[in-house]
Amino acid sequence: MADKLTGIDEGVLTEEQKKRAMIIHSLFEIQKEHNYLPEEELKKLSEKLNIPLADIYSTASFYKQFYLQPRGKNVVCVCVGTACHVNGAPEVLEVLENTFGIKAGETDKDLNVTLETVGCVGCCGLAPVVTLNEEEIIGEVTKEKAQELADRVWNK
Amino acid sequence: MEHKVTLTIDGKEVCVPEGTNVLEAARTAGIEIPTLCYLKDFLGFGACRICLVEIEGFRAPVTACTTIAKDGMKVTTNSPRLQQERKFVLDLIFSMHPPECGRCPKLGVCDLRKIASKNKVAKSSFGYTEIGHTVDDPNPFIYRDTRYCILCGKCVRICQGQGTSVLAFLGRGVKMTVSTPNNALLKDSGCTFCGSCVEVCPVNALSEKPKIGKGRESKYKRFECVCLECGNACDTIVSVYQNEVVKVNAKVKDDVHGYLCAVGRFGFTLDRGKRITAPMKRKGLDFEEITWDEAISTIAERIKGSSMLLSAKLLNEDIMTAKAFAKALQLEDIASTVELYSSYNAMKSKAEIDDTDLIIVVGLSLSQKKRLFPALDFDIRRKVRLGSKLIVVSGEDLEVSAVAEFKLIGDVRKLINELLGKESSEDNSIAGAKKLYESAKSPVIICEPSYYDEIVCAAGESTKLVAVPYESNAKGVAAVMSDVLEDGKIKAVVESSKMLYVVGEVWPNIEFKSDFIVMQKPYLDAQADKADLLLPAPTSWEMEGSIINLFGSLTKLQKALAMPEGVKTYSEVLQEIAKAVSVDMDLSKDIEAAIEIKGKYEKTDFKGILPLSERKLHMDALNELIDDTVEKFNVLETKSEVS
Fold it and tell me: Which domains does chain B have, with CATH numbers?
């Protein structure tokens, strides 16, 4: 008998597999609350699901969407895909790095901002592109525009 | 009946049980398919890609370890195309593996190197890219160098399979490593330092630290020994280099690595006190060395009517001599340490778990993490992985119950009657467990010795039942000497005020009341302090003979090291004492006859002197020593970093 909601045959998934299937969902919930995955929370999850901590870390470290280090309040993401690269993404990145005082992939010590790079955002017509907190997309970024953005984020 | 499938491998017809993978099927036909990541008893993993084979009707080569054998399959394990593919796979592996084999400590025993030379690959055509990985890990036992890691995942799977689950794959792509949660150090990650991961590592990524700087492994002499530290009595392979133990491995049986805990594998590095190499007499608070002649005559003077305590860590041969000695001198007050925890009757139990379909663990504290019978825990998990069922009956929750079909926690004696006896229970899980027990073909019960009688009463005498001792040769003592020894005599023996002769290492928490104590033991430790006369003794590496292990089977030990000068075996000393008092001993050399278990089951009310909670103390001392060593090592490390 297939389950109405999941379409999965009864008995197809063992209890163990059901628990394992919970991992990713739980990790998202934890990350939503803490902005990253604190070790303490993962330990609690490991006890609750009765899954070894090592396995949970294995899953969490596989996906780029999960963060094991604390992240800043604002996440600035610079696209370094081919189109953006050609149109000056390296210079944009340099401006942001210098203003924030951190390298790409790092977070400043006050947890104000995290600077990341991404392969392609999907709007190469606007290259070079920078996104802010995954909600604001800034296209055709020049050095000046980058500086403006950096100042705005820094003083936010 | 089990379904069988027939397939052809390299022109040979092979018949194997359904569900067997092609690699295993080839092994049954005597064809060895090279592999780096395959672990017998685990599902095929397909990580190394070395075991590629061609199968008729398949477009491309497939990995043999992940392909299930089907009827009528035609498999080719060697062809020009496969050789080319294997070379390419090796080419890729070497692009991330340090190329200078000449400098590698594992040279000569490295699986990767063996396969590479067979395929004539020496280094990668892509060159070698080093990716920032960890080298070493501050602990005294395991050396970790992940630059050598080829991500075969053997260590990850064995660690998970035995229930410790400390290692995992972290990250992905070229940055993937085998590491601990949050890249913690092994000692902070819950690692028990059992070294199972080291045992299976095909390359130099994991190795035993104590052997570093002690020559090449191919130069080691290997001896088959038994670890005598706890009742589990694991079979070991002891490697000796320049008359020194440098490495201890678990014995490989049918391609499967056994298990050794940190005590068994790295115990030889522990500081257990100064070695006693000459007889010593008490002089005030200290000891002074005396000659063997003086020692023997001192004992000979007092031996008539004295009492004797035998350690259950002695080998069968020494126990036989002790028996002949006690008979010749008509010593009445003789006891063994078995009486601390078991009746001799329970120690006569024997059974094998090899062919069982249901294991029932009753009242025994098993723990991988606290190192309480960890090898038994490992064996049980292995049986479960291969399809046996497990029922745990216990007063506390055990780690191994994670793989149990039913875990029954509560009053053990009551549960025994409900599960195995005629009493019925309303409880659903007990009823379910009972149904499973009744339908099982050959259930084996593994129990704490004090529940032995209850189980026999409830389940009947024909049940396959093993009472697990706390000392390695308790079953040997019971087999050889049970007609001489008497349950519970130990109380009278340790409380006697006459001379007490303690043969072998005994539990640290026994209080003696005698005014003259002779001890024969290898190390000058806290317990030796209670002695008035100390005699040197061989360590377990220096003895040759046999024991009876917890399953009741006879196991032989080889002599790995020569005894230091001045040390005599237990048997030699007993013979010399008998000679000094001019008594003839009736010495028989026939072990097989001596250990033949005599007599039928008799119910005794004796359950051992020590309360249940104190029975693990013997192992506790060694466990603490291991943990201390790990702790102290860190202190040293940090100090050297500062300076």
Answer: 4-78 (3.10.20.740), 131-270+613-643 (3.30.70.20), 281-342+472-598 (3.40.50.740), 346-467 (3.40.228.10)
